[in-house]
């Protein structure tokens, strides 16, 4: 059987079009004509030996073969880019101080740091996992180089908005746990809603309480902690609902649909990347690039699961 060598350039076009939701946008992003992109996709289907697209209304969707190819394409491109970075940056040295909000500390830290340290073993990395308020303060004072944090309003001049993510009511997967004063999936209006929240000051804590107050729903603090993992555990045990984004959601918890549960809808929250300096060194720039890639992949997975 003849071995197939997929063209990485074609795979990059394929994944870019999926990520942008349009191959016309992919052509513009990659600096190619739409006809050149079409030719690349035709070549890819020929190499795959199976259709990778199917019609879906006025657009296109991936076939089962296309979904399989997309997963492998991302892995191949990631390895290719990591290899190129390692070869070009083998002599990269220095120090990078990174700050992460705890949700992303659990969701992306090991992957990002593993890839970075394999490619740049001479760079020393220091990581601070803390609340958004503390991270914003530390990056403003120049004590960390990069900080990924939640933001309620517009980002500061030294920050860029990475994404806007939905806030969700979150409760236990296990049936029969009385997160709302009684067992079931709907809040009992006759009793205060039990909440599991991080200690103050906490932006998400304030959003949860203000949203319930505005809706005229009584609530109480059933559990508070400085630890996100403790918050997850308490909510999974049925002590009350918590409010977070879908990022890093454990298998023991699920998103509670507000209308079905008799709860008010929650707003979205911004995710911003802060930099201590506008002109950072190559080590900081490379870690920032990997961090943004990991965050975007996390957001893609959340969107696909929704």
Detail the topology: elements first, then pairings:
Blueprint: H1 8-20, H2 23-30, H3 34-48, E1 53-56, E2 59-62, H4 64-88, E3 94-100, H5 102-119, E4 123-129, H6 132-140, E5 146-151, E6 159-166, E7 168-172, E8 193-198, H7 203-214, E9 219-225, H8 228-236, E10 242-244, E11 253-256, H9 258-261, E12 268-275, H10 282-305
Parallel strand pairs: 3-4, 3-5, 8-9
Antiparallel strand pairs: 1-2, 5-12, 6-12, 7-10, 7-11
Helix pairs in contact: 1-2, 1-3, 1-4, 2-3, 4-5, 5-10
Describe the structure.
The protein is an alpha/beta fold and 306 residues long. It has ten helices and twelve strands. The protein has helices spanning 8-20, 23-30, 34-48, 64-88, 102-119, 132-140, 203-214, 228-236, 258-261, 282-305, and strands at residues 53-56, 59-62, 94-100, 123-129, 146-151, 159-166, 168-172, 193-198, 219-225, 242-244, 253-256, 268-275. Helix 7 (203-214) links the parallel strand 8 (193-198) and strand 9 (219-225). The two termini are 40 Å apart.
Short description:
It contains ten helices and twelve strands.
Spans of at least 5 consecutive residues whose pLDDT stays below 50 are: none
Count every helix, treating DSSP H or I runs of 4 or more residues as helices.
10
* Radius of gyration from the alpha-carbon trace, in angstroms: 22 Å
User: Which shape, going by the Cα principal axes?
Assistant: globular
Strand content: 15-25%
Secondary structure tally: strands: 12
Structural class: alpha/beta
Helix content: 40-55%
The termini sit apart by: 40 Å
Major sheet strand order? 4-3-5-12-6
Q: What is the mean pLDDT?
A: 84
The arrangement of helices and strands along the chain is HHHEEHEHEHEEEEHEHEEHEH
**Major sheet summary line:** 5 strands, mixed
């Amino acid at each position: 059987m003849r071995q197939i060598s997929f063209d990485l350039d074609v795979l990059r076009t394929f994944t870019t079009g999926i990520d942008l939701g349009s191959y016309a946008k992919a052509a513009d992003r990659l600096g190619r004509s739409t006809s050149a992109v079409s030719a690349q996709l035709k070549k890819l289907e020929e190499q795959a030996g199976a259709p990778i697209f199917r019609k879906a209304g006025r657009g296109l969707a991936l076939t089962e073969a296309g979904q399989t190819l997309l997963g492998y394409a991302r892995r191949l491109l990631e390895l290719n880019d990591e290899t190129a970075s390692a070869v070009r940056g083998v002599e990269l040295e220095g120090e990078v101080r990174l700050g992460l909000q705890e949700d992303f500390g659990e969701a992306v830290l090991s992957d990002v740091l593993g890839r970075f340290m394999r490619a740049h073993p001479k760079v020393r990395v220091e990581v601070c996992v803390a609340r958004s308020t503390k991270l914003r303060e530390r990056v403003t004072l120049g004590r960390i180089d990069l900080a990924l944090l939640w933001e309620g309003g517009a980002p500061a001049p030294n920050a860029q908005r990475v994404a806007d993510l939905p806030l969700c009511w979150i409760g236990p997967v296990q049936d029969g746990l009385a997160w709302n004063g009684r067992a079931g999936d709907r809040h009992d209006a006759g009793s205060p809603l039990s909440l599991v929240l991080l200690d103050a000051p906490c932006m998400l804590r304030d959003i949860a309480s203000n949203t319930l107050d505005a809706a005229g729903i009584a609530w109480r603090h059933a559990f508070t902690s400085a630890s996100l993992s403790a918050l997850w555990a308490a909510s999974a045990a049925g002590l009350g609902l918590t409010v977070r984004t879908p990022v890093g959601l454990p298998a023991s918890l699920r998103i509670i649909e507000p209308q079905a549960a008799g709860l008010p809808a929650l707003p979205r929250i911004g995710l911003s990347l802060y930099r201590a300096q506008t002109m950072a060194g190559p080590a900081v720039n490379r870690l920032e690039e990997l961090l943004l890639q990991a965050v975007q992949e996390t957001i893609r997975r959340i969107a696909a699961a929704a």
